[in-house]
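Continuing the series of single-chain predictions for the mutant panel. This is the parent chain; the variants come on the following pages.
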Amino acid sequence: MSQRSRLRHAARKLSQYRGGSAQTQLNRVQLSDPLWDFLVVLGVTVEHIRRTPEWVIELYMQTRLAEGFNPGHSRNALSAIRVLVFEAGRGSVDTTCSATVMGIPRRDRSGARRAYTKAERDVALERAREVEPGLTHIVALMYLTGLRSIEALRCTPYLAQWLALLQAGASELPLAHGAKTNRPRKIEIIDELRADTVRAIESALEYCKAHGGWLITGRKNTSLKSARHRLRTALRAAGLVGKLSSHSLRYAYAINLAASLLDKQVSPETVLDRVSAALGHGQRAAMILNTYLTEIRERFSCVVIPRPTPREPARSMRERHLPGPLRSTRSNRTLQFRKQ
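Parent structure:
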């Protein structure tokens, strides 16, 4: 087995050890894959991923930037490489291989997207209805509940439960299956749009019952992968791209929810935390304010967001309970645990 094949195999296994959703594991492998080709081009022999020299990683990242890769993609690739090196038993390299140390600029999302207005939402619904009837329900759910497109596609098992909860007066809806990175969350309902939310869920539920439990069907109505491809094609055909992409529907939800809470005299700090939790981002107030709520940023002028305290890197599911020095290493071929 060649060095390239051996390292690719090891990267797949290490990504599985780290955990996360299937898509997260796949993205991790795909982002790190060009590094193993880069090692071959340089003529550097590496017996194991944990032996990858830091100067090679830095040279690889600078080469990618010189080739025109955007900062966001470069940061994601470096993060994937750090995770794999850590999982291979080398220990944390967050300090020596950080994006700041390597001079990778931060991504600038300002102006990349903006929230839909109600009139623009109505136009998007009409275009979606012309392309794919089920897409109309996905667009409506994303606007009213802040779901990602893949979450809206996979939320069909929850629709009946959500409808029952709303009819019982609930203000939050649970989401676990299908959430990004398998991170469960509570979707907060906007009071002013509660009636619209109930109608949208009722309509989506009726459509699902008539179409085998799917909002958009894939090949032979059984393949989630082909359904996702068809969803992406339908979104492009409906013109939901650019500044008013499907993700901009989440921006509209965030702004509507924040405005509703602020009008109820909820403190701005609490509003940021609740919007972040409802979107599935955890405690990321700075990102929410600088990305989703830029259009009403002036209403948060009194908020002072402290710098986050450094945290220890997450450990794999198998060794989460062990301190760093006791973490075992894994061989390239079998990836079985070995003594140091």
